[in-house]
Design a protein that fits this description.
alpha/beta; binds phosphoric acid mono(formamide)ester
Length: about 325
């Protein structure tokens, strides 16, 4: 079975079987990262162009490492150093890259919908590596992989997603995914940072972290995205930490086997206390490790099967 889609643009359009396929494929790829020689020939001869038009550490490095582990050829472009800085449009950039026949475009962009715009106009498969405040599908997939690895399941879990939900593509992708897979999701944050329509998407809403954390199986803390805030969403960072910062005392109210997640980058002392981030319940670096396996799975499922099928039919 292959995903029905040419692209991976969001979790919203995925079916549960497709999510399970990606997670199961990632499970089989994870072991490659533990070998002394971390390389398989699976995508030899395929070309992936990584277009990162917004800063990134984890996603960018993770895609590049995933491509190298699968033996794909990678090309990396950002807004600085490409002809976008000379005024070329995003569509012209994508069409020129397509003319060089890559197999995949991986795109991060500050504008919501930018990868969808390119995917509709290019034959090349597009993977959304985070678009504005919309979706970050591979982050939600690696989060689900990590939860499943630690808890053995996704259904029936009590997951709290807390922080700046308004500006968060990670929140949107995780909400879609966790609801599809049967988790109970509580969205927690100050009223100014909870997007409208969250209840319609199936989340419970809590304005109190002290209440939300009670009995949680998974605590997922999200970054306060100061760079996207044009107004005053809360009085001060100190006040935010007092009400919405996850501390060891607060985490004690969760299930004894709670796991603590954060997609990064973290604001230590704002949404999360360092004692929690670096403490025994934290799986934050497991998320990063699993990101490579999940991205290997996505690259393989979108670019891996096609040529084999073409060769089979050509033969
Ligand atoms: N989680 C995440 O997307 O991090 P980066 O912005 O560093 O890629």
């Amino acid at each position: 079975m292959r995903p029905k889609h040419k692209d991976l643009l969001g979790i919203e359009e995925l079916e549960t079987e497709e999510i399970e396929l990606i997670l199961d494929t990632a499970s089989s790829f994870k072991e490659i990262g533990t070998r002394p020689i971390k390389k398989v020939p699976t995508l030899r001869g395929r070309t992936v162009v990584n277009l990162f038009f917004e800063p990134s550490t984890r996603t960018r490095a993770s895609f590049e490492i995933a491509e190298k582990r699968l033996s794909a050829d990678s090309v990396n472009l950002g807004s600085i150093g490409s002809s976008l800085s000379k005024g070329e449009t995003l569509l012209d950039t994508a069409r020129n890259l397509q003319a060089m026949a890559p197999d995949l475009l991986v795109m991060r962009h500050g504008s919501s919908g930018a990868p969808h715009f390119i995917a509709r106009r290019c034959k090349t498969s597009v993977v959304n590596a985070g678009d504005g405040m919309h979706e970050h599908p591979t982050q939600a997939l690696l989060d689900a992989f990590t939860i499943r690895e630690h808890k053995g399941r996704l259904d029936g879990l009590r997951v709290v997603i807390a922080g700046d939900l308004l500006h968060s593509r990670v929140f949107r992708s995780n909400l879609w995914l966790l609801k599809k897979m049967g988790s109970e999701v509580t969205a927690c944050g100050p009223p100014t940072l909870i997007p409208p329509g969250v209840r319609k998407l199936g989340a419970k809403v809590s304005r109190s972290l002290d209440e939300a954390v009670e009995g949680a199986d998974v605590m997922m803390m999200l970054r306060v995205q100061l760079e996207r805030m044009k107004g005053n969403y809360f009085p001060s960072a100190r006040e935010y930490f007092r009400l919405y910062g996850l501390t060891p005392e607060r985490l004690q109210r969760a299930q004894p086997d709670v796991i603590l997640m954060h997609p990064g980058p973290m604001n230590r002392g704002i949404e999360i206390d360092s004692a929690v981030a670096d403490g025994p319940y934290s799986v934050i670096l497991d998320q990063v490790t699993n990101g490579v396996a999940v991205r290997m799975a996505v690259l393989y499922l979108l670019a891996g099967g096609g040529a084999e099928e073409k060769n089979a039919t050509a033969g």
